[in-house]
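Render Nitrile hydratase accessory protein in 3D.
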Amino acid sequence: MEATAPTPPLHDTCVTDMNAPTFDADWQRRAFGVAVALSEFGHYPWDAFQQRLIDAIGAWETASATEQGSWQYYEHWLAALERVLVDHDLVAEDEMRALLGA
């Protein structure tokens, strides 16, 4: 009988799917991993990321229908990650704008 490798544990705050989060694209998996890893290595508290995610989703919810576009959870995740990186001086605001082409 062939042994299977155990599934690595998820971050304690990941409660949406206790088996494993799912991703539609590799960039989503990477954004998820970066956000979790940076928090676990002490660059920011997880609740700071969570609050930025709540803020990003809230901004989408309150935007007009023409500004909203379609619901894309990991777009909000990425927006939260971008903000928390700036908030905690991991990336300068002007560098983030340059990276985003704004």
